[in-house]
Amino acid sequence: VTHTFKDRFDLPEGVIYLDGNSLGAMPRGVAAHIDQVIRNEWGRSLIRAWNAHDWVNVQQRVGAKIAGLVGAHPDEVLSADSTSINLYKTLAAALALRPGRTVILSTPDNFPTDLYIAGGLIAHLDRGHTLKLVPADEIEAHLDDTVAVLTLTQVNYRTGELYDMARLTERAQAAGALTVWDLSHTAGAMPVVLNASRADFAVGCGYKYLNGGPGAPAFLFVARRWQDQFSQPLSGWLGHAQPFAFTPDYVPADGVSRYVVGTPPVLSSLALEFGIDLMLEADLQALRHQSLALTDAFIDGVHRKCAGHGLKLLTPMAHDRRGSQVSFAHPDGYAMIQALIAAGVIGDFRAPDILRFGFTPLYIDLDDVAVAVDRFALILREGTWRAPQFQVRKKVT
Ligand SMILES: Cc1ncc(COP(=O)(O)O)c(C=O)c1O
Questions:
Q1: Which of 25, 26, 76, 147 is a good FRET partner for 121, with 20 to 30 A between their CA atoms?
Q2: 356 is catalytic
Q3: What distance in Å separates the CA atoms of residue 69 and residue 287, rounded to the nearest whole number?
């Protein structure tokens, strides 16, 4: 069994937390760290803290650290804004770099914000672009000379299927298109190799496997070769070459800094940095190894102990096609997840019928998996999930 960082996290007693793919757990010490930042940096240094505590470079500094987790150069990644906003910026850049091509290609089961943002950008540009959605296994057949950009989430948030980033990027580029990868379900869960895959652009969440805390800033990656070719449309003052010159005209900063929009959320950024510093101590190959051992054990346990209840595995068995989550389909999935949460096993539900379990290899171990399987088996055997209180849909599922 691989060494885990479990004791570096503050997890509630008795809870098996299988939802780090939605909101990562709280690193031990982050509360004291942020308390110190609030009292000393904000409280004592006040406005001087932007220079004295280097708040002014937090987006570049945290980005450079994230670069070490996703196979990028430090000057290619920025921690900024939300994943949605970063999608807008990078998709806009990719379309501008492929004039004359009209198609954004993706899959119908990509995460909704990715599709909504692409649609919103197309409507805003009003230049005849279209969003074409085809099943993942048909992507390659649809890469033709109309495609400006292929955008995919590297691990499908519903099924947990891992796509071949290097291969799809190579195919997209062979057809003359660019790629925007959403790493929300891979960054921090396994090694990601952006430059070795020749990826063009990428985005991802800070609050999932990077353990940055609720609403943590997201990140974006722009390959060096594209950085100075286009300036993204959200031309805010902190992405200016000289923000404190206060000139009326916008001049984009050099490099990835032109993807900065405005003032960063400093407290959230520093909480994210704390989580990333912890992650940087881990060996990503070992984490991947642990992650596959965990998902193997969970799939095997559910097959052995939860058989006969109509659960349908959606996650690929092949290791090279599996992310760090396991999903099952069941028409009563929502109630089952609610009953599991009541029993201390926290997973989540994705409409219409998906029970989703995320395995963060930093703080989940094989003992957790065994307990989770046993509690799941008991709930199914006893039909606990049929109780009325588990049928009521909450706003967040
Ligand atoms: C693949 C993917 N992209 C984006 C998001 C969220 O984007 P945002 O941080 O803008 O809410 C999620 C959230 O679950 C996600 O799974």
A1: 76
A2: yes
A3: 12
Q: Which two tokens stand for residue 109?
A: 């089961």
- For the chain, the first-to-last Cα distance in angstroms comes to 32
Nearest by Cα to 90 from 11, 199, 163? 199
Ligand 1 centroid – CA 350 distance (Å): 13
Per-residue exposure over 151-165, b if at least 16 CB sit within 10 Å of its own CB, e if not: bbbbbbbbbbbbbeb
Q: Is the CB of 82 under 6 A from ligand 1?
A: yes
The reported pTM is: 0.97
Active-site residue (options: 19, 356, 368, 375):
356
Tokens representing 241 are 């070459």
- CA-nearest residue for atom 7, ligand 1, is 83
Are the C-beta atoms of residues 360 and 209 closer than 8 Å to each other? yes
Q: Is 182 in the pocket of ligand 1 (CB under 6 A)?
A: yes
Q: Which residue, 271, 330, 222, is CA-closest to 58?
A: 271
Residue 205, ligand 1, Cβ within 6 A: yes
pLDDT values of the chain reduced to their tens digit, one per residue, 397 residues: 455 799 999 999 999 999 999 999 999 999 999 999 999 999 999 999 999 999 999 999 999 999 999 999 999 999 999 999 999 999 999 999 999 999 999 999 999 999 999 999 999 999 999 999 999 999 999 999 999 999 999 999 999 999 999 999 999 999 999 999 999 999 999 999 999 999 999 999 999 999 999 999 999 999 999 999 999 999 999 999 999 999 999 999 999 999 999 999 999 999 999 999 999 999 999 999 999 999 999 999 999 999 999 999 999 999 999 999 999 999 999 999 999 999 999 999 999 999 999 999 999 999 999 999 999 999 999 999 999 999 998 888 8
